[in-house]
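Why do we care about 3D structure at all? Because function follows from shape, and shape follows, mostly, from sequence. That is the central idea of this module. The next example makes it concrete: a single protein chain, its amino acid sequence, and then its structure expressed as tokens.
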Amino acid sequence: MTYDIAVVGAGILGLAHALAAARRGKRVVVIERDAFAVGASIRNFGFVTVTGQEAGDCWQLARRSRDVWAEIAPKAGIEVLQRGLVVTARRPEAEAVIDAFLATAMGEGCRKLSPAEALDMVPALVHGQLRAALHSPHELRVESRDALPRLARYLETAHGVAFRWSTRATAIATPRIETTSGTIMAETIVVCPGDDYQSLFADRIAAYRPTRCKLQMLRVRPERAIRLPTAVMSDLGLARYLGYAALPEAGALKALLDAEQGEQRRHGVHLIVVQSADGSLVVGDSHEYGETLAPFGETAVDALILDELAAVLDLGAMDIVERWIGYYASAADRWRFTDAPDARTRVVVVTAGCGASTAFGIGEETIAALFG
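And the structure:
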């Protein structure tokens, strides 16, 4: 059988391209080297983030992707566990960044909360030093490790997408794909390699000078039950997420954080906290960059993340029930790239750790360019 399109990679970016093509009535096959997705797509927060994304197409594609997530989740049996975001500000400089952000077009629908309003929304917040908070209604949160398999099953059952699991693509010359399970023919091919820069089109990928990012994350279980109706971030996020951090007003905050929380800043630590259905919290994360990164977590880095957690949320005693390391593609000068080895082939890579937040928008963009 010859397919209209083959997608190499069953992470969120690959599945997003498969969905966009299937919605156009295309015959789609997804080729995945592992028996199920095990890369960056299932190691993240499942936090579909709009507010704070870099101004321009990143923010715009995040808005579109959020809408697709909201539409597809109930059809695929994916539970939306949280909606919205609260970003706390403990410093005047952080509050100034919130004010500046709300004055931009990206602040539409968002609002500044007083400490009392923030505590009413998220009672577990530490209120002693809380000056203000930013509330965004735009975000949603799913459980990544559950959402990806459900999305793949939905594509298979509702849209007839074929999956070739445990199959590595070894060579591509469109329309021919050589794999470890034989030859597959497809008129159009989209490769979503994640941070695998060597297996396919290595010379073309190298031109974009990609590197890798390693992050550390934890799952904690507070001894007393709490409820987080929204995801929670903090001052460190206001100095890192480019939708805030690129504002001129963020300069003073970054300088202050460098002085007061230098270790967190040096390790790329910023706080995101989301809650799972069982009440446990996924907490992170850190950022280390390099071509090849050691596969070991550092207790000291975990401690830096937990220190910021304790400064923002009053959780009492808690157990750390999981620790893990994630890797994703990164580049210093771009948040994504799409390369065209020929008129019917595309290589698509997200290089800023926002794949879950932007993939559906990118998939629609790529498929529209290929099929009109």
